[in-house]
Amino acid sequence: ETGVTQTPRHLVMGMTNKKSLKCEQHLGHNAMYWYKQSAKKPLELMFVYSLEERVENNSVPSRFSPECPNSSHLFLHLHTLQPEDSALYLCASSETQNTEAFFGQGTRLTVV
Amino acid sequence: GNSVTQMEGPVTLSEEAFLTINCTYTATGYPSLFWYVQYPGEGLQLLLKATKADDKGSNKGFEATYRKETTSFHLEKGSVQVSDSAVYFCALRRSQGNLIFGKGTKLSVKP
After folding, report:
1. Pick from A38, A30, A32, A43: which is nearest to A95 by CA?
2. Residue A39: DSSP 8-state
3. Integer Cα distance of A81 and B48 in angstroms
4. What's chain A's average pLDDT?
5. SS3 of residue A84 by DSSP
6. Are the Cβ atoms of B104 and A48 closer than 8 angstroms?
7. B98 contacts A41? CB cut-off 8 A
């Protein structure tokens, strides 16, 4: 248990659906991240939030929309996804952007 | 630019064998270096880290030494167990920068 909790653990959605992934940490960390892990590809950093402000958006399609309402919660809103978006989505947090990251267990997303 | 290169897997070993997973990096300045482990069906967990040259990180019998002269951070364990089967990721972080991961190396340990 790393202190970072992601829900749901598994999600199957159609291409016309709208869903949200949730991440929660009570470690007192100030930075939170979304990563995408696809088979046979390096981990891709999607979004970075520091003190609830988005500080990085790595050319992610607009069908992925992050939200950080407070320092403990991070959401990833999904709409009109494509089958190639199927992957493991990992949330992480760190005390600051300079310190090691703690990861959640991930949400396994399948787009059908 | 900054990058991390890990040996290609999968690596298959028998229980109690010696493990080495090579990792080299390219970075300006003095990054911090990390090894993360991902067990089946789980997220990544920090295994060990080193923040400056010649530092040795260690945890659960695993070790890695920050070698600036060879820009390497190889992961070693003297005697692996079946429970060590997982994917291992080498990563670096520069000051004010984000984590940069290698592609991961899958380790399978057979009884």
Report:
1. A30
2. T
3. 36
4. 91
5. helix
6. no
7. no
* Segments of chain A assigned E as strands: 4-7, 10-13, 18-25, 31-37, 44-50, 53-57, 64-70, 73-79, 87-94, 102-103, 107-111
Q: Are A97 and B98 in contact (CB under 8 A)?
A: yes
Q: What is the amino acid identity at position B37? A: V
Pick from A45, A97, A104: CB nearest B43: A104
Query: What are the beta bridge partners of residue A78?
Result: A19, A64
Q: What's the length of chain A? A: 112
Res A59: pLDDT: 84
CB-CB under 8 Å, A41 with B44: no
pLDDT at A1 over 70: no
Would you give the DSSP letter of residue B42? S
Residue type, B75: L
Give tens-digit pLDDT for A58-90.
Answer: 789 999 999 999 999 999 999 999 999 999 999
Looking up tokens 């990180």 gives B57
Query: How many CB atoms are closer than 10 A to CB A68?
Result: 19
Low-confidence ranges of chain B (pLDDT < 70): 96
